[in-house]
């Protein structure tokens, strides 16, 4: 298969790049795409940059220039669910924006106004199952499935954590997943978002993020590597 693996930051793609047998590097829209092979798949690995626009542009480029058959996002997130701890894995069942708000026009918060599609983008069932299967082989990791929220804010506020968890039933929060999901959905390309918890999006999030991004990135990457072997 031809599979895209996206991370937003250098730490999030580092481990995968070290494992990848890279045959070519290409720049498109100032984004570096590492073309290579892993576990008998053609893998296109890239660092999107942080935030929804970077993630959407990267995803569309992967679809237009590489015609990828599946998209896997790997990276870190802040926990919303109190059951999640640093290093735990969340496999996305769906992704939505927490920061889209046209409520003044009568649209529910978190929904894209005048959009003839769902605003909660469902991840591919087969990719979810393969991720769960891969995770079950990594006994030391705690894994759950859930809705992942995305927005252009780094959240470091316990009150917002409670609000977003209740309002949108999100398991964790990050800054790219729903934009990848959105672009993948519009192009009918299957996707899943894999995240590992780097912080709890509370008052200590900035400190924890710096301390635990490497560990959490590695955990997410282990799942993706195992997934690629099973696909
Ligand atoms: N990614 C990792 N931690 C995050 C947080 N607290 N808010 C947004 N994105 C994140």
Distance between the termini: 8 Å
What is the succession of H and E elements? EHEEEHEEEHEHEHEH
The CATH superfamily name is Nucleoside phosphorylase domain
Shape: globular
CATH architectural category: 3-Layer(aba) Sandwich
Strand order of the largest sheet: 5-9-8-6-10
The CATH topology label is: Rossmann fold
The ligands bound in this entry are: adenine
Q: Catalogue the unreliable spans.
A: none
Task: Count the beta strands.
Answer: 10
Strand content: 25-35%
Tally of separate domains: 1
Average of the residue pLDDT scores: 98
Q: Percent of residues in helical segments?
A: 25-40%
* Structural class designation: alpha/beta
Number of helices: 6
Biggest beta sheet summary: 5 strands, mixed, barrel
Just give the CATH class. Answer: Alpha Beta
Q: Gyration radius, to the nearest Å? A: 16 Å
Structural features, described:
With 231 residues, this protein is α/β, with parallel strands linked by helices. It has one domain: 3-Layer(aba) Sandwich (Rossmann fold). Helix content is 36%, strand content 31%. It has 6 helices and 10 strands; from the N terminus they run E-H-E-E-E-H-E-E-E-H-E-H-E-H-E-H. It has helices at residues 10-19, 52-66, 125-136, 158-168, 177-186, 205-230, and strands at 2-7, 21-28, 31-38, 41-47, 70-79, 89-97, 121-122, 143-150, 170-174, 191-199. It has a 5-stranded mixed β-barrel, surrounded by 5 helices. A hairpin with a 2-residue loop joins strand 2 (21-28) and strand 3. Helix 3 (125-136) crosses helix 6. The longest helix has 26 residues, at 205-230. It is globular. The relative contact order is 0.23. The protein binds adenine. Adenine binds next to strand 5, strand 9, strand 10 and helix 6. The site of adenine has 14 residues, from strand 5, strand 9, strand 10 and helix 6.
């Amino acid at each position: 298969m031809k599979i895209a693996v996206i991370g937003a930051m250098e730490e999030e793609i580092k481990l995968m790049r070290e494992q990848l047998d890279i045959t070519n590097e290409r720049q498109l829209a100032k984004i570096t795409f590492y073309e290579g092979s892993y576990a008998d798949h053609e893998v296109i690995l890239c660092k999107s940059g942080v935030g929804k626009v970077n993630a959407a542009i990267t995803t569309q480029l992967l679809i237009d220039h590489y015609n990828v058959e599946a998209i896997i996002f790997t990276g870190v997130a802040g926990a919303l669910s109190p059951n999640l701890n640093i290093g735990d894995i969340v496999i996305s069942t769906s992704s939505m924006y927490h920061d889209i708000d046209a409520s003044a026009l009568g649209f529910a918060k978190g929904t894209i106004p005048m959009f003839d599609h769902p605003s909660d983008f469902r991840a591919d069932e087969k990719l979810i199952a393969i991720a769960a299967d891969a995770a079950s082989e990594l006994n030391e990791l705690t894994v759950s499935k859930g809705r992942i929220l995305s927005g252009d804010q780094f959240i470091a506020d316990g009150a917002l954590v409670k609000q977003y968890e209740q309002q949108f039933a999100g398991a964790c929060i990050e800054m790219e997943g729903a934009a990848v999901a959105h672009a993948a959905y519009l192009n009918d390309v299957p996707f899943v978002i894999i995240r590992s918890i780097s912080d709890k999006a509370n008052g200590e999030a900035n400190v924890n993020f710096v301390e635990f991004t490497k560990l959490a990135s590695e955990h997410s990457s282990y799942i993706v590597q195992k997934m690629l072997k099973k696909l």
